[in-house]
Every structure is written in C-alpha cells, then in structure tokens.
C-alpha cells in the first residue's frame, strides 16, 4: 500500500549507526505505540530525534487528509541514511594529526493507514 504521509529530518546531529538502533524498534508499529516505545527507550537522544520526525509525519497526515483517523496510522517505512560529515583533526604524538569524524544522518519516516478488521 502507498504511504499516507512522509516526514524527513536532514543533517541530524547523530551517528546513523546509533539512530538505526532506535529506528529498528518502531518499524511496522502503530504510530501511538511507536511514540510510547520511543518515549521510554534507553537510546534517549536518537529516540528524541525520531520522535520529532514521527510527530511531524502524523501532523503531515492530518493536514494532507483532514478526515483521517490517527489511530489507524502505522510506521510503514523508516530508514536512516548517512549524511555528509564534518572532518576535524586532533593533534597526535610526533607531529601527526588524528582525524575526528562528526557524523550526521538523514531520518525518513513514511506512515501508512491500516484497514479496519
């Protein structure tokens, strides 16, 4: 089935590998259940970023389809992509420089609507 609403967060200040751990917890869940899982997750910062994108997707669904029932929305797709990262250098022994990579990610959430049973 096609998605109902989409929300994206670009250049989120979090490593994609850490963010994917929180994203995997809510894949395929209902929107309300996903918010609860993220709220009580141990991955606090990643969960907060994903929760903001999820709230935006729910709001987008309500604007795009005013008569939609929010209780029937679920996370049909969620993925976290790698974004360009900042390169910084820290001095090391013998006049060398050690690279420090400040990683960023793009978060995308697509919500679908479940049919009533």
Contiguous runs where pLDDT drops below 50 for at least 5 residues: none
Q: Treating each run of at least 4 consecutive H or I residues as one helix, how many helices? A: 3
For the report, how would you describe the main beta sheet?
3 strands, antiparallel
Q: Could you tell me the radius of gyration in angstroms?
A: 17 Å
The beta-strand count equals 5
Explain briefly what this protein structure is:
With 117 residues, this protein is an alpha+beta fold.
Q: What is the topological layout?
A:
Elements (H helix, E strand, L loop, with lengths): L4 E8 L3 H11 L4 H9 L4 H21 L8 E10 L3 E6 L5 E6 L2 E9 L4
Antiparallel strand pairs: 1-5, 2-5, 3-4
What this model shows, in words?
With 117 residues, the chain is of the alpha+beta class. The protein has a single domain, classed as Ribosomal protein L22/L17 (Ribosomal Protein L22, Chain A, Alpha-Beta Complex), CATH 3.90.470. The protein has three helices and five strands; from the N terminus they run E-H-H-H-E-E-E-E. The chain has helices at residues 16-26, 31-39, 44-64; strands at 5-12, 73-82, 86-91, 97-102, 105-113. The strands form two sheets. A three-stranded antiparallel sheet has the order 1-5-2. The longest helix is centred in the middle third of the chain and has 21 residues, at 44-64. The protein is elongated and about 65 Å long. The model has no long low-confidence stretch (mean pLDDT 94).
